[in-house]
Amino acid sequence: xxxxxxxxxxxxxxxxxxxxxxxxxxxxxxxxxxxxxxxxxxxxxxxxxxxxxxxxxxxxxxxxxxxxxxxxxxxxxxxxxxxxxxxxxxxxxxxxxxxxxxxxxxxxxxxxxx
Length: 114
Hints:
Structural class: mainly beta
Helix content: under 10%
Number of helices: 0
Distance between the termini: 37 Å
Order of helices and strands: EEEEEEEEEE
Strand content: over 45%
Oligomer: single chain
Largest sheet: 6 strands, mixed
């Protein structure tokens, strides 16, 4: 399993970012995929889940209504559209094949300033 997230950056509160994750080494087109994040000094936090073959996405209460997951099963890519970003969204974001993030790739840092 190889996962590589990208697309992070520094933004102002209220702005948007879209993260991407390139996946390989497994059947991405029929897999549960997750976004998790880790803020400085804190434990890994689950952000959202989706079954790439279809079905509703599931989100943490802290991001519901603001974040949207999607996938491109031909490109083996996972996305996280993040809208209305808040300072508390500041974290390193990872795509993962486990909800607890135990199998995750290299993350991408998102910094939201007020």
